Amino acid sequence: MTPAADLVDFLRTAHAVHAQDGPEPGRVVARQGGRAVSVVLVGRQWFRSVPRGRGTDLLPLHWRGMEWSVVRVVAKELGAPSADNDEQEDQE
Fold this sequence. Notes:
By secondary structure, this protein is of the alpha+beta class.
């Protein structure tokens, strides 16, 4: 599996987020509740892609190999439920 495919799989299974490969290799687009988050793997680092004016800003997230951490950032941005939240509620 590619890192992008791992990311899509993690988003779908761990957070029930609709995610798919983006229009170019290494890009993943996740959507939930009318919101969308796009991330892209450039070289060995994941970036959050944010539209700005006529271009796009790339905000660094995590290194390749830390796809689980990227998933947590994306899910939080979308307000998606997570398995971690369920575990914390069970402990309270």
